[in-house]
Write a structure and sequence with these properties.
Layout: E1 2-5, E2 11-14, E3 25-28, H1 31-41, H2 45-50, E4 56-59, E5 65-68, H3 70-76, H4 88-91, H5 113-124, E6 128-136, E7 144-154, E8 157-167
Parallel strand pairs: 1-3
Antiparallel strand pairs: 1-2, 4-5, 4-8, 6-7, 7-8
């Protein structure tokens, strides 16, 4: 899937995905347009994130959460002090993150689609679109929460977008 700047139409590269053909186009914003648009308005990152109509979480290279927009905070039923600086499994209340080893360090974390997708985006710079993921709030085969997630690397963070939420 091709990415282009929605403002100046500059080519932003290609997202490699098996789900969508290379002829499809998605939009982002290039660095020049971002600077031209946000600097004069003195818009903060939080104001920009809160203006998005989908839940977005900002994740750093240690897979800790740096920020979350209003939609994400509402979805998680948490305010920023209970989100910023915590690992994703702790914020999403993954049952395995509560084990003594902690988020990202149990045998179950090896298959975590949320973690693996974010880490891959950091490592390769490859964006991912609508990746199926799930979360268990209990270890004893309780109901799963299912997600579709998308990621994009922006400078030194990854934006994790939650596209869809459901349960089994």
């Amino acid at each position: 899937m091709k990415r282009v700047c929605a403002w100046c139409k500059k080519d932003l590269g290609t997202i490699k995905t098996e789900m969508y053909s290379e002829s499809l186009i998605t939009h982002g914003i290039c660095e020049e347009c971002k600077n031209a648009f946000f600097d004069p308005l003195k818009t903060t990152l939080m104001d920009f994130l809160d203006g998005l109509n989908v839940p977005v979480i900002v994740v750093d290279a240690t897979v800790s959460i740096n920020s979350a927009n209003r939609q994400a905070r509402e979805l998680l039923h948490k305010e920023l002090p209970r989100i910023v600086g915590f690992k994703g499994g702790d914020v999403f209340e993954c049952a395995y993150a509560a084990l003594p080893e902690g988020c990202g360090k149990t045998i179950h974390c090896v298959g975590c689609a949320i973690r693996n997708t974010v880490v891959d985006t950091f490592r390769t710079g490859t964006s991912h679109l609508e990746i199926p993921a799930y979360l268990n709030h209990t270890i004893d085969n309780g109901p799963e929460i299912r997600f579709l997630i998308s990621t994009e690397k922006v400078n030194d963070v990854v934006l994790l977008r939650i596209d869809k939420v459901g349960s089994n």
